[in-house]
Tubulin-tyrosine ligase family protein (Paramecium octaurelia), 554 residues
Amino acid sequence: MFGNVIFLIVSVLSLLLTYNFMRTSLTYKNKQEVDQILSYLNKYLTQTYFAPGATKTQYNSILVKPEIDYCKRSDLYKFYHPDIVMKDTYTFREARGVIRETLRSSYYDCIPQMTYKLKNTQYLPRHVLPIQLTVPFTYYDQLVHKFQVGQESLCLFQKYNHLVTRHVLSHKDNLMNNQYQYLDTMRKSGLDQDCINNATFIPKTYRLFNKLDCEEFFSYLDSAEYKTLIERDGPQFITKVGLEVHRGRGIKVLFPDETKFLQDTYKHGKRCGIDRSLLVAQKYIGNPLLFNDHKIEFRVYWVLASTNPIIAYAYDKTLIRRCISPFDKFSLDKEAHVCNTAIVQSTLQKKGSNLFMNDENSDESELYIDWKLDYLQDLLLKQGKIKDNKWLQNYLHPTIDRMIIHAIRSAQQKFNRDSRLAEFFAADFILTDDLQIYIMEMNYNPQTLKTTLARQKQHAKMTQDMIEIQNAYLRSKYLRFQKMISRLATKMNKEKRPLDSLLTNKTIEEINDAYVDKLDQGIKISEDNLFRLVMDENLPGTKQYKDLIQQKCI
Ligand SMILES: *[C@@H]1O[C@H](CO)[C@@H](O)[C@H](O)[C@H]1NC(C)=O
Ligand SMILES: *[C@@H]1O[C@H](CO)[C@@H](O)[C@H](O)[C@H]1NC(C)=O
């Protein structure tokens, strides 16, 4: 009994001593050396990877004042306070909406007063970036444009949600041009036709600004085959304006009048090569799968988690959206054929709805059917169109993933390769009556809706899942660098050697290896995260494409 009490007292005392020791032992070991190494790393990595060269304009839409020694202070602080990176999440967002609300309720918003600056206002930058900031999640990509990367923003221990060259995937003309070049390259290298078919992610498209495509298109319009087809199946093509035209703006369905106008404009092909408007004609999907007589599209949210190497994830829950008007292939009503949001929005605006340009949430509740593709599967099972009750896992998801992979591969030459960068996209797909799918368009900063409580919850969960991915890669990288930096700093200190003398080819190679995004150091993405891996260049051979592309096609 007495022994027990003494034992207890001794235990408590030793605990107290340990605690005191730990408290006082937070010394900044080798601080000078660590500081030097971090400065070197930010400089080296920015020179070697992504260095956009800041365009210093007065205008800074997020109202942050850049500070030249920011990364130096931020990385040093995080180096000695691992919990900031490993346990917490310091973020901010300037745009209102579900994403910001979720960031605020689930993580630490370290610039809560942040709003974006409206044009023509007199605000001066009022904020500075907090040194704890780990995962900025901005709407605009200011941190790469108005700041000097590696000094004023995007430090070693940060992960950003933007990629400067994201438009190579989201601009319509880029998506199409990439698809063309990609397929052309495959043809030229003599790959099998089934490789090429599998790599086709948008419907057949003619670039009217390209002489050959344009001539081919107009001679097809004059063909007997074309005449038969429009009589039998209705419109065969839509035209779209290139660049960043989304949500139904700039889309024309080639009804007879529109066709005649186009033929006149291009003089049945004689003006091909002269008229260089960024117009494309795309095969119109005249046999869409219908839901209660309406055409439907579904939107797949996906993230490019890194570009060094390329790692992508797609979200399991998918928004299904329907056209406003019932589908009739002979209808002359554009809204029966094109069900993009802008048309929806202008219709709502006519109804007096209040929609703001920059608000991420718009109300179109009646046009969204469900958030799950399971629903589609049930429907198809009921209609007898499919028999497999694992159709989603066995067919639809792999097909979606394969198309995203090909879209990425067709654009990857143009990405900035850097593990600090990421991007959040949505791809809109259409499903045909015979269950083929095509990508209709790709957007970044996709709308996140909060029209119903359920939808708001889904989007909140998606935001958390996205942040978990950002954090997972950042934390793995942090641990890899922390080990390396500690080792180098100790060596400098013990052997009284300058940093330069330690920067051998081997060390540089280690730095580059540590900078490659991968999940290691015991970091994993949780089981209930609804993002599934789509592509990971860390994996060997066709595994990096989940075996959805055969070796002979690469
Ligand atoms: C180190 O790398 C440089 C450039 O890659 C090369 O020229 C040099 O020979 C290498 N040195 C050693 C010792 O391998
Ligand atoms: C085409 O894609 C499917 C998966 O959707 C895959 O199983 C098949 O092997 C691919 N074919 C080729 C030639 O890559």
